[in-house]
Amino acid sequence: xxxxxxxxxxxxxxxxxxxxxxxxxxxxxxxxxxxxxxxxxxxxxxxxxxxxxxxxxxxxxxxxxxxxxxxxxxxxxxxxxxxxxxxxxxxxxxxxxxxxxxxxxxxxxxxxxxxxxxxxxxxxxxxxxxxxxxxxxxxxxxxxxxxxxxxxxxxxxxxxxx
Length: 162
Prior knowledge:
The chain is mostly beta strands and 162 residues long. It is built from no helices and 17 strands. The protein folds into two domains: 6-76, no CATH class; 80-158, no CATH class. 0% of the residues lie in helices and 54% in strands. The protein is elongated, with a radius of gyration of 18 Å.
């Protein structure tokens, strides 16, 4: 099972959305382009999809819905990606110097969780500088509110064992 996606709520706050038994979260994978590049969408509780005259529709028990707006029933749609928990290829303790995000707009934010602490960092000129106090062997890295990303480069600093 995949982890719930990250949504930024208000200025600087994050909320992990999950559905629970009463309101389950449905996931959809979309393969697009000549190379079938994958996209993953959370919260799409449709049982079928169709394209008609250049527009996309989703259907479920209570009707057919036109897709393509900037909101979902009045709520802003946020993009998000989660990396981890990851040890970045080493069991040694580490911290992150920065996270570099290619072709990313300036409204994107990066959240790093390590050892029960977390920090939220703005992306400036394609780079989020991460606070030094976030150190651990494993971390979770969330990137949210971006239009597109061409690549992600995580720059760790391995800490000397003490």
